[in-house]
Amino acid sequence: MTDTETFKIAMRRMAGAVCIVATEVDGKRAGMAATSVVSLSADPPSLLVCVNRSASVHPLLHACGMFSVSVLSRAQQDLCADFGGKYDQEERFNRSRWLSGPFQLPHSPGAQATFFCKIATSSSFATHTVFIAEVFESRFVEQVDPLVYLNGQCRALA
Questions:
Q1: What residues of the chain score a pLDDT lower than 70?
Q2: Which residue ranges form the domains of the chain, and what is each CATH number?
Q3: For position 153, what pLDDT does the model report?
Q4: Nearest to 69 by CA among 37, 109, 41
Q5: CA distance 69 to 49
Q6: What angle do CA 83, 35, 42 make, to 5 degrees?
Q7: FRET pair for 132, CA 20 to 30 Å: which of 5, 34, 48, 68?
């Protein structure tokens, strides 16, 4: 079995799309930067999202049962830092422009793609909750210029 530090270093070699997972409950918004978002199925459209149970967004995800995933563009690199844990939840949203989507779910207007999701099931594993969510609405922009996370840094593909 691999040790934790070797595993973390090896995982830094795996590029991932930078996303903001966000939700709102009773007027309180919460969100986090994430690379642990993947397509699960096209029929039905669904995503798998992994969230550390210590993350401040975690209890609101459970309470709301829905969330948005904003897939960031290169121009949104600051959002990755803003939602990386440096600021409290209110300040994260106050530092940039956010729109209110279906069911008042916050989402970023400059995102490459946005998915609005309803949690279908969840499961705990070690320090994380694995959320499986059905996507009830998808949006995207024509220009493809994603932000990726690789070796501890946000980067553009080109």
A1: 158
A2: 4-156 (2.30.110.10)
A3: 83
A4: 37
A5: 9
A6: 125
A7: 5
